[in-house]
Amino acid sequence: MNPILNILFVDDDASLRANLLEVFNDDVIEGHTLVVSEAADFEKGKSLIANNDYDLVVLDLYKGEPKEENEKLGLDVLKAIQAVAFIPVIFYSGLTKDLVGFESEIVGVVNKGSGGIEQLRIEIGRIIKSNIGLIKRKVYDHVKITLRDYFWKTVHDQKNIIEPVKDDISIGYLLLRRLAHSLSKENIKALLGDEKIRKDKSHPMEFYLFPSGDDEYEAGEILKKDQIYYVILTPSCDFITEGSRSRKVGHVLLAVATKLADSEPYKKYQSNKEKYRQTLSDLIESRKGDRYFFLPGTPFIDNLVLDFQSKTMVVYENLKDYERIAKLDMPFAQSMISSFSRYYNRIGFPDIDAEYVINKL
What is the pTM of this model? Predict the structure, then answer.
């Protein structure tokens, strides 16, 4: 049985709605069976969106005829969606020039002109295949099952253990920690339906929390200024302010990041790929030595290499001049700090003359 895709068409043209309903209701696209609802006007669309959980909204732009002087009530519906829900949207309009720049992974634009129905079908397929648009339901189902099992198999079945803490927030802590733990790599792999995720390897996206947000700085935060990336090395605890406790940090220590393509290990690899392939592999996996730490590339950063010999100090107040890109997630932030600490805590001494000792035995 195909999974269901609940889709809402919002359009004040009755004949067009009837046609869309006839074409798409019970249609199968990318292995999903479409179940179509309709809204005869934009206000009704907002009401239905506020009270139902749709997987996709197909939305007209103009009230009445697609003319520039008419109201663009579809934008009001989009704002209403953005205020209450995560639902992918496809604008389906006879005039789309005012929607240039709206397209994204979760917002599509299709013109109602010649071939519009087929283009709409293609765009619906794109939303389905992108996975991000439909991940909401999978996450909801995962959370529901996790909460159900915890309530009945732990809070109820193990009530002799839970009873002593029933009147405080301990159960809530345990439940939320269990929920966080349930998002293991294997479960994420199942939610995303991506067989390319390897159990024994880290996907680049595992490294980061993106975007950084506007809370306090932390060790492992990635900054950017004048096209150069930096990573905070100062311990997170030095940034904390709490009660009468003031922020300890005055100057912030930053590691300067170099693009992998500009790094010395990569240049050696380019000069002799066979000889230096393993050296580059060790650098990327951060397996040997502590001087370098690799940050894998994503859509928001390049492949970067931290060389702990390249650092700079910045006054805390001047961090506002840096763009906040992302944060290294656990355990990668801790691993970076650990590598940095080991590199600067090395204590070298001359090798013992083993031959001398052995000869004396």
Answer: 0.72
For the stretch 196-237, pLDDT in tens is 666 667 777 888 888 887 788 999 999 999 999 999 999 888
Please, what is the Cα angle at 217 between 216 and 219, to 5 degrees? Answer: 140
Contact 60, 28 (CB under 8 A): no
Q: Domains for the chain: give ranges and CATH numbers.
A: 4-130 (3.40.50.2300), 135-192 (no CATH), 209-344 (2.30.30.110)
Tell which residue, 2, 48, 9, has the closest CA to residue 27: 2
Give CA–CA dist 51/55, Å, rounded: 13
- What's the pLDDT at 47? 93
What is the chain's mean pLDDT, rounded? 86
Question: How distant is the alpha carbon of residue 134 from its chain centre?
Answer: 15
User: Under a CB-based contact definition with an 8 Å cutoff, are residues 340 and 226 in contact?
Assistant: no
**Distance in angstroms (rounded) separating the CA atoms of residues 59 and 112:** 11
